[in-house]
Amino acid sequence: MKARVLTTLCLTVFGLAALAGEATAAWDEPRSPFDYLANLSTNGSITERLFQGQRITASGCYYQLGMDHDGEMKIWAGASGSVVWSTHTGGAGAFAVMHHTGELVVRDWTGDALWRSGTTEWPGAHTRILEDGRAAVVGVLNFPPDHELFGEELIFYSTNPPDEDPIGSTVCPRSEKTEVHWNADIPGGDYAAHWLSYAHMSSCGDRCAADPQCEAFTYVPPGVQGAQARCWLKSSVSSPTASTGMVSGRIFRHDPANDW
User: Fold this and answer.
1) Number of structural domains, the chain?
2) For the chain, first and last CA: distance in Å?
3) Is residue 166 part of a domain?
4) The predicted structure's pLDDT at residue 141
5) CB environment 26-51: b (16+ within 10 A), e (fewer)
């Protein structure tokens, strides 16, 4: 019987070292806003991203991890919104994505990597914003049968928590992330379509994340509906269907004023 050890790997940057399905799969329905929107994960052909302006929130509601409009991934603290951690990246259209290898990466709008967590050998890992203000990549280790480790939690830290006292966080801020399905289309719900000068699905996801009306999007590559790539913004969400070359995403939002 394989024992599994949950290992938390804290992310750091610039001197802070990182510790070490099918396209038609159904949407990963939220379990609760405080659980689902504290994590970025990946499952088969599904990846989760933070486009600019999107943030996930720690369960204590004090800290948030997200992509700022300046192209930096940051951790914000409390109602004041003070920045306690940053990737020191930059650029319009930059986004964060959790990869199947277990690595969290900040990429520019063309897909080039600007920052990496360095956790490439942790398939199935996910990113979490912890209650103490640290971002972490959390992975599961499978040990040989002769190991007597059952459910032991091993936590490795390379930095101290931010010097912030998480008091007074009685109301959770708005949280948001995007779940992306590759080789998938979302039928119906269209309210706007844009021709894209640059054939990158991130341009489509960025447009959707910036529009409160947008619940989902489908990116169509060049040569399918015209010479240019096309971005369809959708005000409603249906089940994704297989469609080679297309990329679709659904935005999950949690507004405390309209709780699940």
Assistant:
1) 2
2) 38
3) no
4) 58
5) ebeeeeebbebbbbbbbeebbbbbbb
